[in-house]
Design a protein that fits this description.
5 helices, about 150 residues, alpha+beta, single chain, five-stranded mixed β-sheet, Beta Polymerase, domain 2, about 25% strand
């Protein structure tokens, strides 16, 4: 299976997607750090801290004072033995859209998963979060041959 389907978002065209999810730049919002902290707690609860190596807030919303797309980017580093199918199943379908396998747009060594929250059939919700899930950077670097 390439992705867990969200029936309301699966069959929209690229043009419809651009209207629903436009690229927006916003002044820095201190609430973004709070959104990250809340989602970190959610992820730890849903996935289990035993499966998580590290959770980091990165990207433009993590830099105070910087103009940014108002979407909080999270790097979710999981342990190599984490069961991706169980991780995906733990994500409530009414809140999260999980993309993996052939649904991803760039080749990335497994395990790799992108988790979206706040993307709705009506467009962006008030809080939008994208969590990129991969194995810890040290392991990923060795697979990619980066020292």
């Amino acid at each position: 299976m390439c992705r867990r389907h969200n029936k309301n978002l699966d069959h929209i065209t690229a043009e419809e997607r651009a209207v629903l999810f436009p690229i927006i730049l916003s002044e820095y919002n201190a609430a973004w750090a709070e959104w990250f902290a809340e989602e970190k707690t959610n992820l730890e609860h849903l996935i289990g801290t035993e499966n998580i190596a590290k959770i980091s807030h990165y990207g433009s919303t993590s830099v105070p004072g910087l103009l940014a797309k108002p979407i909080v980017d999270i790097l979710l580093e999981i342990h190599e033995d984490t069961d991706l199918n169980r991780l995906i199943a733990a994500m409530p379908q009414n809140e999260y859209v999980c993309l993996y396998g052939c649904a991803l747009t760039m080749p990335t060594p497994a395990p790799h998963l992108t988790i979206f929250k706040g993307y709705t059939p009506a467009g962006f919700a008030k809080k939008c979060i994208t969590s990129t899930c991969s194995m810890p950077a040290t392991r990923m670097n060795s697979i990619l041959g980066i020292i």
